[in-house]
Amino acid sequence: MLSYIAKRLLLILPTLLGVLLVTFAVIQFVPGGPVEQYLAEARHAAGRGGVEGMSYRGDQGVDPRRLQQIKALYGFDKPAHERLLQMLGQFARFDLGQSFFQNKDVWSLIKEKLPVSVSLGLWSFFISYLVAVPLGVAKAVRAGSRFDLVTTLLVLTGYAIPGFVLGVALLVIFGGQLQWFPLRGLTSAHWDDLSWGARVADYLWHITLPVTAMVLGSFATTAMLTKNAFLEEIRKQYVLTARAKGLSERQVLYRHVFRNALIPIVTGFPAAFIGAFFTGSLLIETLFSLDGLGLLSYESVIRRDYPVVLGTLYLFTLIGLLTKLVSDLCYVWVDPRVKFD
């Protein structure tokens, strides 16, 4: 086991390096880099960018010395390989760099946006597991019944509807027409003046619609996986033996079937739990005006804020690789029959 863990940890390094190299190489060929973005914003601020009939023409008309200063500001006065080595050296020290346009380091930006993504992710994660797993067990016990067919239809319908489409419908019906829930944000404008109880109620009031839009689509996968895993275990010989010994159906289900059937669910639990902290939903965050990691990543790509793009990519890839290792190790913890050698 120790040898396997050591090999997996060593494989993380080339995998992480490969992801960064491919992304860095692609960035070099993307038009409209930070220098061009800066020049466009400067011209717009000067009142020339929005004049009718005029269009941005790159660095034409810009003083060469000024252009060189701007390139030096963003580090583009150095060759690509030097910038790559400098970036890798920073990442080795867990220094994610400084944003080009927000005058903050990447760590600070992640910390600012993280609460929104954590709020959405954790609520979606816990609600999905607390509802989908019992639903999957009930469907397996009642396989082929009317309950199984109706719930399957409802779950698959929810899975087929995109989250942002459902979010729009929820906003129009419950936020616009009925006005039961707010249309934007995680808290009200007078949040600081509320008591603790009122703050909790206000937060739950705001989070209901975006979490509902995110969570319905995730029910199907977990519920159907749970159902199929239980059906497979229920048909095995040891279940027939337990029933023949006189055990009740509840004892057979929860003392024998439950542990074996939950192996695929439990092993995916670490990845889903960690992903709840760092997974941002761009469409949901944009729709409900929530400033989270999804919106940060999108804006960074659009504005060519490369330190934010590469810094967040490095952090999330590293966390994803480590979480995958933990998920694999959970197989051994849940099922001792699994041997990696």
Describe the structure.
It is found in: Cell membrane. The chain contains 15 helices and no strands. The protein is mostly helical.
User: Averaged pLDDT, please?
Assistant: 82
Query: What class would the helix/strand composition place it in?
Result: mainly alpha
Total beta strands? 0
Measured by DSSP, the beta-strand proportion falls in: under 5%
Shape: globular
- How widely separated are the two ends? 8 Å
Q: Which regions contain 5 or more consecutive residues with pLDDT less than 50?
A: 49-59
Listing every helix as H and every strand as E from the N terminus to the C terminus, the arrangement reads: HHHHHHHHHHHHHHH
State the share of residues found in helices, binned by percent: over 70%
Number of helices: 15
Biggest β-sheet, characterized? none
Computed over alpha carbons, the radius of gyration is 26 Å
Short structural description:
The chain is mostly helical and about 350 residues long. It has helices spanning about 1-25, 35-45, 65-75, 80-90, 105-140, 145-160, 165-175, 195-235, 235-245, 250-260, 265, 270-280, 280-285, 295-300, 305-335.
List the helices and strands and how they pair.
Layout: H1 2-27, H2 34-45, H3 64-73, H4 80-92, H5 106-141, H6 146-160, H7 163-177, H8 196-234, H9 237-244, H10 249-261, H11 263-267, H12 269-278, H13 282-287, H14 293-302, H15 306-334
